Sequence to fold (263 residues):
Amino acid sequence: MSLDQFAINFFVALFALIDPVGNVPLFAAATVGAAAAGRRLTAVYIAVFAFAFLAVFYLTGLSILKFFGISMGAFRIAGGILLLLLGLDMARGDLLASFAAAGGQPDAEPLSTRAYARAQFESMIVPFGIPLLIGPGAISSAVIYAEEARKFGAAGTATGLAVIAAICVLVVAAFWLTSLISRVLGKIGMVIVVRVLGLILCAMAVQFMLAGLAGSTTNLVRRDTATPYQHEHPVGATKSPSPVSRLGALLSGAPAGPRPAGQ
Fold:
């Protein structure tokens, strides 16, 4: 794998896992009623946080989780629980009220753009920032591709950080489109979207927990349930697992495929 291929593969994997475009409606719901400037600054804060968080795991690997004795399975289950709580709030219609409270009380003085963005960001770190935007999959991807980057030395490390930065720039660009989405959908449309996404998010949360259980237990959860639609193997696959296959294996808790002899 060349350095260019490494950068492209890492970018595609991280983009698919973070899904900036798919999270735009959720960001729009979380910042409904906000001024455009406050919403844009909130997006910048979230993107900076995402870059710092992923960069730490990219540079340190799983050392942080190992230090606290936390397995990836436990991280997935905990993330699934947080997502389930968020999904229930969205499905019940409580999300908009909970995020609106971060902008200040009705009788309080209006917050400045920076104060609003800071308050909104603090309320959105969990569960929007983690684990919705940056979940176990994104963390696993950063860890696995960091290992691949070591082959290229400092250039590989710098390229990986540049990929993370590029993804975070796309997050900002996507979230800045929320004003357009809010105008198109209107208040009723946003309510409908939030309720539907809440149901989908609850299902995603259960999927997170199933994947965590599958990786932490033996034969408790069927593999095709923990990782659905991912069991077709490409023709001509090599014996040595690629970073993408290793990422899928880490997320599902299954082996990454046959290992070369002597390992």
